[in-house]
Specification:
The complex is a heterotrimer. By secondary structure, chain A is mostly helical. Chain A is 74% helix and 0% strand. Chain A has 15 helices and no strands. In chain C, 45% of the residues are buried. Chain C contains 13 helices and 2 strands. By secondary structure, chain C is mainly α. The chains are: A mainly alpha, B alpha/beta, C mainly alpha. Chains in contact: A-B, A-C, B-C. At the A-C interface, α1, α2, α4, α5 and α6 of A face α1, α3, α4, α5 and α6 of C.
Chain lengths: 293, 422, 297
């Protein structure tokens, strides 16, 4: 499927959704809508409870009410006074951003090279890269850990990010999308005297921006929520990412659930906000990555 | 936690100071910075903060940075970072882990001129001698601890109970009077907290098994001997608290101490280290009593300690600084601060078994307990704990008999011990 | 030495291609392939991270296959998968199929289902752990108590603990599957449906004869994707059972948690590597079998 088709189908998706038909109200449809809506409400209930609990005083948290009787920001003040949350947030942001830039750049470079250059060994490289999709990270974690230790990368930002600097999934995705870029465009640019790097960057890349943003969303989200590798590779709390820090924090608070919920809310709200703002793009990105990947 | 704020502060302040010093062109900028690691336990963290402050005041050329981890990750982090040339210069570890640390070359012996073995043996509790290897001490404690029974005074008053239990039978009766249920019969307040994952596995091993007439291990702690009638009776008695008497629910409120802190438990068995945390819990009125005596009046207790050691990562001037800090951590002054902040008793009998401490309503029961306590020698503390946890779970969740559950536990634990010692 | 200028266009392309691929080839060799072989080698060795490595043949594998805990864990891992993939796919398909037909507030409802996918697994694990507590603190049990229904043991039962940990994993992944299914449904050309309508075929037949067969690529993708996810479950279990990791009585322990424990708590690196090789084999076999079955149908 070409990008145009996906664009078209997601376009109609929006259009169809927008044209609401009130005329033919039949009971079956009303029931369907009601059930779906209730199901959706149930889906977000846990998140609602998390946020509501984070706004409650300790004596109120075991009550079933969703709206706090006397809402308070005390929990947030306590958790943020801790100071570590800022640092964990920053670590996560830095690592997710850096890996995203790197993965988007390199994956599209490799995808482009495998798609648009003909050379011996192309198929071999492609299959080799694709085959790494079958290797679970958990298998690599132990050798990575040893590697990081030997190179002195333990306990550093670089140590957290190095395994994710390129992704086989992204390479595959980008290769698929570069297939839709007509060779004539590239040839024309070549005649204009652009070198291959310039052609890739200024001719081919702008034509696949939807794919690039889809990949970026996936890589970012993946690194933002990554847990096992950051847990293993970091030793000092100042280098923890948000998920690892949240675990530490929650264990420390033992069972002060209002504080744990506040920490959880702090770790969750940023991505939720990003989603609510860029909903259309994110859903389109997920669809593209999912269907092509 | 404000601790880390303080640390950041300190870092930025020392950073600023160093910058200022550099700008002025003076040559005093060669301060040594050493790192101290322990697991996260609020009272202990606060105590070390105070100790560091005092130590730095006396040694302006040394800066000590404290780092903490959740208990579950602590050993992993220590073992992973020291060989990589990172991590602590002075480390706190559980006495039961010493062998692992020595075998792995993670810690260095304390020089005998600074820490003469004869003097240590004359001054410290004899259990500390387990820290000696080849004529030198590897590690030393600041404090020792024992178990006691904490009770919620307000709940006792409410139920009309005048005094904490003297015997195990009394404990069951009192716990029954303290248990509360809601309309559907769900427990909302437990008479006594249970949960082998906290301190209860120690209570069972060194106290209950002995009180029921058995002994948990041979004297060298290399062979399991609790798998007999007395061991079974002890485990059965413990499980009965939940299954027969219904005065407890294991894992209520996720952790036993949390239930007690929240005022949802009448009694709670824990170590002296809990005192600090309970002191800072608002609205909780609590008292301490000795662990109840067994059927024939026998008393027993479990004592343990955390030690400090200088790691193999500390070299040169860092090692010197680390040894200085070590010496301060094991000084009488540090022990007193530790007692006041954490509630653990000084590691020296002369300082611990004072009349004042014995008469103290809070420290008294612990001091008494220390007199007849035993110290389990662990090969693999977390593994051996898991075995006891699983034994209880088999009874509670799988309806296994105490005999079957304990038989399995003994076999598994013996395998652990054999693997370690052979 | 030839100058770049003297190369033919084809040769220039080869140079550029390898220029583009140089760094990635190094990356994949050093960060993916070398460690994979490293893990396989390590699985035939004994090493505690500190001393030297010693070869011990297939001892690690023998120890593993003789360990009842491993078989328990192996079973758990598959239980997560067998419960997870079919149920979550069925539910998400039903939602997607119906949501596709809904116009009013379509975007809002879609967002409601998708929101959990955007959360952090660790945060959600703690959230659900709180929900599962017994009275007086757990949300679910407090709800039950409010309507006088007996307590449900959730994480404290050897039978229910695994489904309790599994549920949030399904919950968080549902939105993703719904979106993918809907896109798959939308991608089916309208002409098929029109033809069917002209023939007067009922909705059930349309679903069975047109929608499902044409959705096969989407289904294959989701089955493989979600199976791999469930076989690798870790974050949820780790965070929901910190008091008794993988408990009670190993009832919730998946393979990845066993690997983590063996490697980073017991420092038995060779033994852990052997477990990772088993995990790798399982993932490979499961994916290949699924692809094969789906292709045949």
């Amino acid at each position: 499927m070409a990008i145009e088709e996906i664009k078209a189908s997601s376009g109609t998706l929006e259009k169809q959704a927008a044209s609401t038909g009130y005329k033919d109200v039949d009971p079956g449809k009303v029931i369907r809508w009601t059930l779906l809506f209730l199901g959706g409400v149930v889906m977000v209930m846990p998140i609602v409870f998390m946020i509501s609990t984070s706004l409650k005083w300790p004596h109120e948290i075991y009550e079933l009410s969703i709206i706090p009787k006397e809402p308070t920001l005390d929990n947030y003040i306590f958790v943020l006074e801790d100071g570590r949350f800022y640092q964990w947030f920053w670590n996560s942001l830095l690592i997710a951003t850096a890996t995203t830039i790197s993965a988007v750049l390199f994956d599209s470079m490799v995808g482009y090279a495998l798609c648009k250059f003909s050379f011996r060994g192309r198929m071999f490289i492609f299959i080799a890269i694709l085959s790494t999709l079958m290797i679970p990270t958990e298998m690599l974690v132990i050798p990575w850990y040893i590697m990081a230790r030997d190179f002195g990368w333990l306990n550093s930002h670089w140590g957290i990010m190095f395994p994710g600097m390129m992704t086989a999934f992204g390479t595959f995705l980008m290769k698929q999308f570069f297939e839709t870029v007509p060779d004539d465009f590239l040839e024309a640019a070549r005649i204009d005297g652009l070198n291959e790097l310039q052609i890739w960057w200024s001719v081919a890349m702008p034509l696949v921006t939807p794919a690039l943003s889809a990949l970026a969303i996936f890589v970012f989200l993946g690194n933002w929520t990554a847990f096992i590798w950051p847990l293993i590779v970091t030793n000092s709390p100042s280098l923890y990412t948000l998920p690892v820090g949240l675990t530490t924090f929650s264990v420390e608070q033992s069972v002060q659930w209002e504080l744990i919920m506040t920490g959880a809310a702090l770790a969750t709200i940023p991505t939720l906000l990003v989603f609510l703002i860029f909903q259309r793009y994110i859903i389109r990105g997920v669809v593209m990555a999912g269907l092509k990947g | 936690m404000k601790i880390l704020n303080k640390k950041f502060w300190k870092n930025s302040v020392t950073g600023l100071a160093a910058g200022a010093v550099f700008a002025m062109g003076t040559a005093a900028a060669n301060a040594v910075e050493i790192e101290y690691w322990q697991y996260f336990f609020e009272a202990r963290v606060n105590a070390v903060d105070i100790l560091i402050e005092n130590f730095e005041a006396a040694n302006p050329d040394i800066t000590v940075i404290q780092t903490t981890f959740p208990y579950a990750d602590y050993r992993t982090k220590v073992a992973a970072s020291i060989p990589a040339g990172q991590g602590p210069d002075v480390v706190q570890l559980f006495y039961g882990w010493l062998n692992d640390y020595v075998d792995a070359d993670l810690i260095r012996p304390l020089p005998t001129d600074m820490f003469p073995p004869e003097q240590i043996e004359a001054e410290f509790f004899p259990m500390v001698q387990a820290m000696k290897r080849d004529g030198a001490y590897m590690a030393l404690p600041t404090a020792v601890r024992a178990l006691a029974l904490f009770y919620n005074k307000r709940l006792f008053e409410e139920a009309g109970i005048e005094a904490p239990p003297e015997t195990l039978d009394e404990l069951v009766d009192i716990a029954a009077a303290l248990t509360k249920r809601d309309g559907s019969g769900n427990i909302t307040q437990v008479g006594i907290t249970t949960g082998m994952n906290a301190q209860d596995h120690h209570w069972w091993r060194e106290v209950l098994v002995r009180q029921f007439g058995g002994s948990p291990y041979t004297d060298d702690y290399k062979t399991v001997t609790y798998n007999d009638a007395s061991g079974i009776a002890a485990l059965q008695w413990y499980a009965d608290l939940e299954t027969t008497h219904g005065v407890t629910q294991s894992g209520v409120m996720d952790e036993p101490q949390a239930a007690f802190k929240a005022g949802r438990a009448g009694m709670h068995i824990d170590g002296s280290f809990r005192i600090g945390a309970l002191n800072s819990t608002r609205g909780l009125e609590w008292g301490v009593a000795e662990l109840p005596a067994g059927p024939d009046g026998m008393r027993s207790n479990y004592s343990s300690y955390w030690v400090n050691a200088v790691t193999s990562k500390a070299e040169g001037e860092k090692q010197e600084a680390a040894l200085k800090f070590m010496a301060y951590l094991t000084s009488d002054e540090a022990m007193q601060i530790w007692l006041e902040t954490v509630g653990e008793l000084p590691a020296k009998p002369t300082a611990a078994l004072t009349d004042a401490n014995k008469a103290d309503p809070v420290f008294g029961p612990f001091v008494e307990g220390l007199g007849y306590a035993r110290t389990t020698i662990f090969a693999n503390e977390s593994g051996q704990r898991q075995v006891i946890m699983d034994a209880l779970q088999r009874i509670l969740l799988e309806d296994a008999s105490a005999e079957t559950a304990l038989g399995e536990a003994a076999a598994t634990e013996q395998a652990l011990l054999d693997e370690y010692y052979n | 030495m030839f100058g770049y200028k003297s190369l033919s266009i084809k040769q220039k392309q080869v140079v550029w291609a390898w220029g583009f691929l140089a760094l990635p080839v190094v990356f994949y060799s050093v960060i993916r392939f070398y460690p994979t072989f490293g893990a396989v080698l390590l699985s035939f060795q004994e090493w505690n991270l500190l001393g030297g490595k010693t070869w011990n043949g297939i001892e690690n594998y023998q120890k593993l296959f003789a360990d009842p805990v491993f078989w328990k864990v192996f079973g758990n891992t598959f239980l997560y998968l067998i419960l997870g993939t079919p149920i979550s796919l069925l539910v998400s398909f039903i939602i997607a199929y119906n949501l596709d037909k809904v116009r009013f507030m379509h975007g809002t409802i879609r967002a409601l289902y998708f929101l959990p996918f955007m959360t952090s697994t660790v945060a959600m694990a703690w959230l659900w752990r709180w929900f599962y507590q017994p009275v007086p603190i757990g949300l679910f049990n407090n709800m039950l108590a409010a309507i006088s229904i007996p307590q449900f043991p959730f994480l404290k039962s050897t039978f229910w603990a695994l489904p309790s940990i599994w549920a949030p994993a399904v919950w968080a992944g549902l939105g993703f599957q719904v979106i993918i299914f809907m896109a798959g449904i939308r991608a089916i050309p309208n002409t098929y449906y029109e033809a069917a309508r002209i023939d007067g075929v009922g909705p059930w037949t349309i679903l069975r004869e047109i929608t499902l067969p044409l959705l096969k690529p989407t289904i294959v993708f989701l089955v493989v994707f979600s199976s791999i996810g469930f076989l690798r479950i870790f974050d949820q279990v780790f965070n929901m059972t910190t008091n008794d990791p993988g408990g009670p009585l190993n009832a919730t322990k998946p393979l990845v948690l066993m690997i983590y424990d063996t490697a980073f708590n017991a420092f038995d690196m060779g033994y852990a590597a052997a477990q990772t090789v088993v995990l790798f084999t399982v993932l490979l076999v499961v994916s290949l079998v699924q692809l094969r079955i789906m292709r045949d149908k």
